[in-house]
Structure formats: structure tokens, C-alpha cells
Amino acid sequence: MKVLVTGGTGFIGSHTCCELLDADYDVVVIDNFSNSKSDVIDKIKKITGKDFKFYEGDVCDKSLLNKIFSENKIDAVIHFAGYKAVGESVAKPLMYYRNNIDSTLSLLETMNEFGCKKIAFSSSATVYGKPKSLPIKEDFSLSTTNPYGSTKLMIEDILRDLYVSDNDWSIAILRYFNPIGAHKSGLIGENPNDIPNNLMPYIVKVATGELECLSVFGNDYDTPDGTGVRDYIHVVDLAKGHIKAIEHILNSRGVDAYNLGTGHGYSVLDLVKTFMDVNGVNVKYKITDRRPGDIDACYADPSKARDILGWEARLGIEDMCRDAYNFVKNVKED
Ligand SMILES: NC(=O)c1ccc[n+]([C@@H]2O[C@H](COP(=O)([O-])OP(=O)(O)OC[C@H]3O[C@@H](n4cnc5c(N)ncnc54)[C@H](O)[C@@H]3O)[C@@H](O)[C@H]2O)c1
């Protein structure tokens, strides 16, 4: 079976390529390196001991997609490519709508033309907006608070409309909670060049001395220690969820959404303290004002993915903290 992975050199895509290759899928990757580096290709090959085809370019480029589908008989697609920074999406909404929507439309049109109608799409827990209760189930109402989230919800709607128009499609909408951690080899992971938007990359940069102090945004939330609670999931567990989703869509038709989370919520301070304990390092932090738009707590009910896809997260926050730090130490030693 041949799977096209868009955005396959990115954080989640690279880990998913490793799992696909380990499971003996043929893998074809397209990425334009807008948020990744070309050396990831060799690292994936080193980790898995397997080769795969890579195309450098933009998923919005229909002529390139045409070439990829002409040169390879693609059975299914995993669509990771897209911009993902919430704050940047507020500052540059047109860039986000153009890239995330246009790439998806070009991809779906090309898939349709080539009769490839199986896709797993990277959505996000952000489509639940402010959830009415916890844990979050897939049938909760959907809304968004920023352009990034709106692109995810629009794409979900496009996929649902597509299935209504043609029941041959098989579509898995995967709503990720908070992926962190890295591959245990220390070769691939997440190490943004800029000031990180997300908590774990920030913690790591404070631990390595690149940044001085972590700001914890608010300690008066309605949570056990007052800091925000999120459902952190190890990126390798998340990647394995894609293999289960691909197995499922290869053997079914329909459109369905699945929460990919652990079902457990941890606070900012839980994560910081576990990181310090597991890695034996200090992470300086200070409590600052709440960040506009943040919610008290968010965690998944992942039982639908367990019951239908046969997938469950296995790794804990200790693994996530250890592997995230190991990766960045490794990068710095390179
Ligand atoms: N990381 C998270 O916290 C998170 C949470 C929920 C959903 N998601 C979604 O999962 C997907 C993957 O996330 P990630 O963390 O691996 O992000 P990432 O930025 O590390 O990976 C995305 C990859 O897509 C590439 N890309 C972007 N636009 C492209 C285009 N038009 N053509 C070709 N390549 C393009 C980038 O170069 C990058 O390699 C994204 O769609 C993201 O919105 C991520």
C-alpha cells in the first residue's frame, strides 16, 4: 500500500513516516520546508533503515500534485501540510486561509481526478472552541476563536460535504490534542527556531539556557493548581494513531472524526515539575497574567478511537518530558 504524506518532514509527519515505514507501507512525501528542514529525510531513513520518495514543493501546486499522482499509484493520503501557529494566524489570516484551504482543495481535486478517495486529515481539538463539559467527545458542538482554528473547521466541513456528494470517499478527521515529546532515537522532534508558541518547546529552551524564564499564563483557573490543564500526547503515540486510521479507511467508506488524546489532563505546573524531575534540570518560571482566549481545561474522551480504530495512547508525561529534552540536547551536540 502506498501512502502520500503531505508535510511529512514536519514534527508529526516525520514521526508518522517512521511508523508507516516500520509497518511496511510504501511512503511518498511532499513538503516545501516552510517549517521543517531537509535533513529530516535522512533521519527518517536512518531510524527506519528504509527508503522513500520525496518531492520538494507546495501542496497548493496542482501541476506538482499531478506529477506525484501520475508517477505513483497512491492508495491513501495523510494530509499534515499547513500552517499551525494560532498567534500568527491572527496577525496574518490571509496567509493561513490561502495556505491551509488552498492546499487542501488542490489535494482533494487531484485525488478525485486520480480516483484516490481515502484521506486522513490533521484537525485539532481547537475546533471544540470552549467545550461545554469535559472530557470532550466528538459529537460536541464545534466553533473556533482564531483563523487557524477556522481553517481546520472549514476543511472538516469541506470533507463532510465531499462525502455527501460522493459516498466512495473514506475520510478520517483526526482531532489532535497537545502533541509533545520526540522520537526515542533523539533524531527527530520539535525544535522551532523562533520563540516557541507552545509550552513544551518553551520549557526545553529554558532548560537548555536558550531562554531565560518560562511565563506561566495565569494561576487562577478553575483547575487543581490554578494553571491551565491540557491533554498532552506523545507524538509517537499520535503517529501510531495515523497507522490505525489508515488501516481503517483503507477498509471502509464514510467520514468520521476521532479524538487523538490520552484522556488525561495535566496542568502547566505538572508538566514543568515532571520535566525537572525526569531530566534533573531546573526550569525557571514565573506566573504572569492570563493569555486572552485560553480556557481552563481541555482533555479528550478518546474512547471512539479505541473502539473503532483500535488505538490507545500508551506513553506517559515522563516519556514525553524525557524524549523532548533528549532530542534537543542531541540537536545541540550535532
Ligand atoms: N503540533 C500541534 O500541536 C498540532 C495540534 C493539532 C493539529 N496540528 C496539525 O497537524 C499538522 C502537522 O502539524 P506539525 O506540528 O507536524 O506541524 P509542522 O509545521 O511541524 O509540519 C507541517 C509541515 O508541512 C509543511 N508545509 C506547510 N505548508 C505546506 C505546503 N503548502 N506545501 C508543502 N508543505 C507544507 C511544513 O514545511 C512542515 O514540514 C498541521 O496541519 C497542524 O495544523 C498540529
Radius of gyration: 19 Å
Order of helices and strands: EHEHEHEHHEHEEHEEEHEEHEEHH
The H-level CATH homologous superfamily of the domain at 2-182 and 232-263 and 300-316, spelled out, is NAD(P)-binding Rossmann-like Domain
Count the E strands. Answer: 14
What is the distance, rounded to the nearest whole angstrom, between the alpha carbons of the first and last residues?
35 Å
| CATH arch. level architecture of the domain at 2-182 and 232-263 and 300-316 | 3-Layer(aba) Sandwich
TL;DR?
The protein is of the alpha/beta class and 334 residues long. The chain is built from eleven helices and 14 strands.
Question: Which terms would index this structure?
Answer:
3-stranded mixed sheet, 14 strands, 334 residues, globular, Rossmann fold, 11 helices, 7-stranded parallel sheet, alpha/beta, single chain, binds nicotinamide-adenine-dinucleotide
Structure description:
With 334 residues, the chain is α/β, with parallel strands linked by helices. It has a domain at 2-182 and 232-263 and 300-316: Rossmann fold (3-Layer(aba) Sandwich). It has helices at residues 11-22, 39-48, 62-71, 86-91, 93-113, 147-165, 199-207, 235-250, 268-279, 303-309, 317-333, and strands at residues 2-6, 26-31, 53-56, 76-79, 118-124, 170-176, 178-180, 214-217, 229-230, 232-234, 254-260, 266-267, 285-288, 297-298. A seven-stranded parallel sheet has the order 3-2-1-4-5-6-11, with helices on both faces. A three-stranded mixed sheet has the order 12-9-14. A two-stranded parallel sheet has the order 7-10. Helix 5 packs parallel to helix 6 (147-165) and helix 7 crosses helix 11. 46% of the residues are buried. Nicotinamide-adenine-dinucleotide (NAD) is lined by residues 7, 9-13, 30-36, 58-60, 80-82, 84, 99, 103, 122, 124, 176, 179.
